[in-house]
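Quick one, probably user error.
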């Protein structure tokens, strides 16, 4: 029966592990900041009697990202016209 040694790891794996732990720590901090921003947004907008700001900001970011992707792809705006008399789509 073979056994696997957990303590014997190459140097590159140890460095990758440290970098991965740092990345995970930064991700946790980023998530906590997002959670705090959501709480502050909910508190301030409730205090002022307004709708929450973050969902509107997310929708705006999604629309801007969609427009940027459309522009980068070189697409043009077009209208679909249904010709019901001839049954042809143009």
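Nope, works fine. Designed sequence:
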């Amino acid at each position: 029966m073979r056994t696997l040694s957990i303590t014997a790891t190459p140097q590159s794996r140890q460095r990758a592990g440290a970098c991965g732990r740092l990345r995970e720590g930064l991700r946790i901090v980023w998530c906590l900041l997002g959670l705090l921003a959501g709480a502050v947004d909910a508190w301030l907008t409730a205090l002022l009697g307004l709708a929450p700001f973050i969902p509107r900001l997310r929708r705006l970011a999604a629309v801007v990202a969609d427009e940027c992707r459309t522009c980068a792809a070189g697409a043009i705006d077009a209208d679909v016209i249904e010709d019901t008399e001839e049954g042809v789509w143009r």
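Residues 30 and 56 are 20 Å apart (CA to CA).
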